[in-house]
Amino acid sequence: MRFRQSAVVCWTILHVLLFRGESFVLSANVPIAPPRREQFQPPPRLFSGRRNARRGVLFSQRGGAEERKNDANANNTPDKMPKNHIAVSSQIDLPFSAEIAFDAFSDLPRQSTWSPWLRSVEYIEEGSPVTKWTMKSILGISYSWNAVHTRLERPYLIEWESCQGLKNWGRVEFVPKDDDNTTTAMRLTLTFVAPRLVARFFRSKRNDNNEEGGLSHMVQTRIVGRTLRNFRKVVLTHDVPQKTQQEDKQELAVVLGPPHERYKSIVK
């Protein structure tokens, strides 16, 4: 019951973001308000000061990630962003390579299969880099916006931003955690432009340790975090090669040796 109430509050805030006088598009692609004539600001430089526990991986803006022995001087983004920007992020470890993760995430029409808040993602027209993102409907209303990739660096980095509708941008990073590239650290960051009152509510602190709580914490754990967990599950099921029963038998035979050798060992 508490989860449902939290979800309703989250959706309400997202609706406030959309009903802020900006131009946006309904599922019928009909403009509700004329767009403001202002230049869209590029995404801010986002850094993270947290390292991966296994290899000291530090996510950075320079594409992919870099390893540092000491990240104490890393920038703290929430305090340096404009007051009307809302940034939420989450991180997860993936049991497959960065190449597999990158190829799956960059297949945009598949986004709705792991995102709990997206109904569909589709290209505006064939050959166009612009995609239309449609949220799941609430109270009979479905919101959409157009977005385009701004940076693609296989297999480490994907960045995008909206070009019509709700102003937002995002980035996802894939960082190999071992030399044989069998595990990957994935970090997803989403940034929205909102009224300052809404942004202040999002950034409310919950304790003296300067830890973010309230709605921001809920979005990070229950929407962004859930998106990553669903992504890992979907890719493991559909993209990672699964060993067949015959392959398992062949590997077992190599370990045990030829049948006559196994018989000799049993007799002994």
Automatic annotation (TrEMBL):
Keyword match Signal: yes
Keyword Signal set for record: yes
Annotated segments matching region Disordered: 58-83
InterPro entries: ORF3, Polyketide_cyclase/dehydratase, START-like_dom_sf
Keywords associated with the record: Signal
Signal peptide feature range: 1-23
Stored Pfam families: Polyketide_cyc2
PANTHER family: POLYKETIDE CYCLASE/DEHYDRASE AND LIPID TRANSPORT SUPERFAMILY PROTEIN, POLYKETIDE CYCLASE_DEHYDRASE AND LIPID TRANSPORT SUPERFAMILY PROTEIN
Protein name, per record: Coenzyme Q-binding protein COQ10 START domain-containing protein
